Amino acid sequence: MGLYATTTRRRIAAVFVLLGLVALPWGMRLIGQEFYVSFASRVLIMALAATSLNLVIGFGGMVSFGHAAFFGAGAYCVAVLAESGVTSAWLAWPAATGVAAALAVFVGAISLRTRGVYFIMITLAFAQMVFYLVVSLKTWGGDDGLPLLQRSAFGSLNLKDDSTFYFVVLAILAFVLFMLDRIAHSRFGRVIQSIRENEVRMEALGYPVFSFKLVCFSLGGALAGLAGALMANQAGLASPNLLHWMQSGILMVMIVIGGVGSVFGGVVGAVLLLVCEEAFVEITPHWQIGLGLLLLAVVLWAPLGIAGLFGWGRNRE
Amino acid sequence: MTQLILEQALNGLQFGLMLFLLAAGLTLVFGIMDMINLAHGSLYMVGAYLAAEVTQASGSFITGVGVAMLGTGVLAVVLEVVLLRRLYARNHLAQVLATFALILIANECVRIVWGAQTLMLNAPDALSGPVRIGGFLYPSYRLLIIGVGALIAGLLYVLVARTRIGMWVRAGASNREMTEALGINVRLLFTAVFAFGAALCALAGAMLGPLLAVQVGMGESILILAFVVIVIGGIGSIRGALVGSLLVGLVDTLGRAMLPAMLRALFSPEVASSLGPALASVLIYVLMAAILFWRPEGLFPARA
Q1: Shortest CB distance from A299 goes to which of B97, B105, B281?
Q2: Per-residue confidence in pLDDT tens, chain B, 304 aa
Q3: Interface mutation target, options A59, A119, A136, chain B, most CBs of B under 10 Å
Q4: Which of B220, B278, B293 sits opposite A137 (nearest CB)?
Q5: How far apart (Å, rounded) are the C-alpha atoms in residues B191 and B25?
Q6: What pTM, to 2 d.p., does this model score?
Q7: Any residues with CB less than 8 A from the CB of A223 and at least 6 apart, and which?
Q8: Coil, strand, or helix at residue B136?
Q9: Which of A91, A238, B129, B294: disulfide with A146, CB 3.0–4.6 Å?
């Protein structure tokens, strides 16, 4: 795999997509389908979560199977804070990001001592610990999850309005993607991608490989926490499903369908998966067979995902 | 108190031996082909459903178990030849995703064939009563599970440690290329190991069916436990799988039974009643993380 690089053409395309997404609520209002604005927020939040995992797997080369822990930690953090009266987004969202980051530092510091399969399994084990701890705590709602009675207060903006909430989510996602594109081209991004390609060589060149990986892992965890905070707001609930290992699996599916190691891979995968789900559930309740077959096809014939099919995101070798 | 501990220890042993049936196949697949198979739990689920269906139709539990093992073994051969073979050379991410896709497909197929409701699988009538061991009563069906589990574990030990096929399997797990160079058909060997592992899965599913619910998604929860077992034991090692399953079975069962009572001695009842179950359910994951921290290759690494 080559290093990540964007071209001017791709940047222009990204700006057009962004403009299209900005116009979406008005478009929906025009055709009277305002329900889909809320759905679009959910898609964008999942896109943010998948992007955060792509940073860890696609750029850092660390196949983490426990990303749901950080996603869920962010959601529960916002819900627990709201329960105790802290409803300001300016406090709750950074707190959720911070809690998820701290958890990721802890999990990463232990897990990154292992390699390959063992890394996959130990991250899964930590995620399962978080899942069972949260589910068995009755004060946090147990199996039912912790409801968030109202969306966070965000300055003078009224997040209860679905369109306003959508714009806030879109702004955050766009900012994160912009920063990620910068990071991928930065010295840190180059080093972390080189570690993915050849860890021993980078170690021999004198780079502190462990620290670089830990920073990358924690940054991914922090962004997942932010996505979780938004998800709790969107759904009005911090659900244990967000912590379930199937959630980690779904996030992985998204980035593989979209494109591992491409900045927009997570977004493409999340949009494709959730829109397909929404469309096919109407037709048949057994759409998961279709999803499974699609996933198999991607793994067997398009290992770099949609991004790979179109040659986005990577230097040609 | 000792009676309670003894009874729970037997339950733990029974659960551990059933976990071993799953972990044995998983660890060999993992060890020889370096392949992560998340769909192993789906084979367990298919086995349980087949057993329930055939037992109901034929009225004989033994027929049900036999057909389930055979049917799941055949399904495994088909899966291996058609799909899994293509994944051996791929990275772990591709394997995780492809077998994750298989879980989705298997769950949905089972839902189409058998519906979403929980299926009933009853233990044979002759074994429905309890038996007296020492000073207490213990369900005879659970004793049968312990017996079958111990028997299979013994057979597997002889097969792997004392026969030529077992030698090939061990050789394949410790160095696949060298084994191939010596003229062993590792590909064929692997198809056989995979089918055998699937049949053991089906046996576990059929035996646990009367104790746990036969339902969609039953494979996933136990799959994670089986992975915990083989990671603790060391990937590719049958001995490690046995020690790991017994450890996980006992720690989990005893933890759930004892921890709340032990915490009550230390904390107030309210704290103990909420903390106890929480701690008990994460105990095995703490165990796994601790073992991986100090012995990153597991207790009995297959590759020296």
Answers
A1: B97
A2: 678 788 888 899 999 999 999 998 888 888 777 788 889 999 999 999 999 999 988 888 899 999 999 999 999 999 999 999 888 888 888 898 899 999 999 999 999 999 888 888 887 777 777 888 777 788 888 889 999 999 999 998 888 888 998 888 888 877 888 888 998 888 888 899 899 999 999 999 999 888 888 888 888 888 888 988 988 998 888 889 999 999 999 999 988 888 877 877 887 777 777 777 778 888 888 888 888 878 878 888 865 4
A3: A136
A4: B278
A5: 12
A6: 0.87
A7: A48, A49, A51, A52, A55, A97, A176
A8: strand
A9: A238
> Could you tell me if B32 and B262 are in contact, meaning their C-beta atoms sit under 8 angstroms apart?
no
Token code pair at residue B54 = 């055939």
Alpha-carbon distance of B5 to B258, in angstroms, equals 8
Instruction: Output phi, psi for B302, to 5 deg.
Output: -80, -35
Biggest CA-to-CA distance, chain A: 60
Two tokens at A208? Answer: 């502190």
Q: Which CB contacts under 8 angstroms, 24+ apart, belong to B100-103? A: B100/A249, B100/A252, B100/A253, B100/A295, B100/B38, B101/A253, B101/A291, B101/A292, B101/A293, B101/A295, B101/A296, B101/A299, B102/A292, B102/A296, B102/B38, B102/B39, B102/B42, B103/A292, B103/B38, B103/B39, B103/B41, B103/B42, B103/B219, B103/B220
Neighbour tally for B286: CB within 10 Å: 15
Tokens standing for A287?
């759409």
Query: In whole angstroms, what is the distance from residue B23 CA to residue A80 CA?
Result: 38
Q: Is there a contact between B107 and A288 if contact means CB atoms under 8 Å apart?
A: yes
